[in-house]
């Protein structure tokens, strides 16, 4: 039976390593899902900010056009 003790300890060590790898994979999977969700949220926020910026730019351009037309027709 003494011959089996090193084998059993090797198997136990391998089992412990596998358990740690499984846990690491689980945590990395959760982190990956969280990061993908954050990335999607940031992409949506960016799209909204770009749209608001475009709206603001259009309004400013319209105001500039109105001011120019008032300058040309002062009356």
Kindly list the characteristics that best describe this protein.
75 residues, mainly alpha, 1 helix, rod-shaped
Topology:
Layout: H1 4-72
Protein model, in words:
With 75 residues, the protein is mainly alpha-helical. The protein is built from 1 helix and no strands. It has one helix spanning 4-72. The radius of gyration is 32 Å and the shape is rod-shaped. The mean pLDDT is 93.
Spans of 5+ residues with little confidence (pLDDT < 50)?
none
Largest sheet: none
The count of helical stretches stands at: 1
- Calculate the terminal CA-CA distance, rounded to whole Å: 110 Å
How would you state the average pLDDT, rounded? 93
- Oligomer classification: single chain
Beta-strand percentage?
under 5%
- The gross shape turns out to be rod-shaped
What would you say about this model in short?
With about 80 residues, the protein is mainly alpha-helical. Helices cover about 90% and strands about 0% of the residues.
């Amino acid at each position: 039976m003494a011959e089996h003790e090193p084998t059993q300890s090797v198997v136990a060590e391998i089992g412990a390593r596998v358990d740690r790898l499984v846990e690491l994979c689980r945590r990395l999977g959760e982190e990956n899902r969280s990061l993908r969700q954050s990335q999607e949220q940031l992409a949506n926020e960016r799209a909204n900010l770009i749209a608001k910026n475009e709206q603001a730019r259009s309004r400013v351009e319209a105001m500039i056009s109105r001011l120019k037309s008032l300058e040309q027709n002062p009356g």
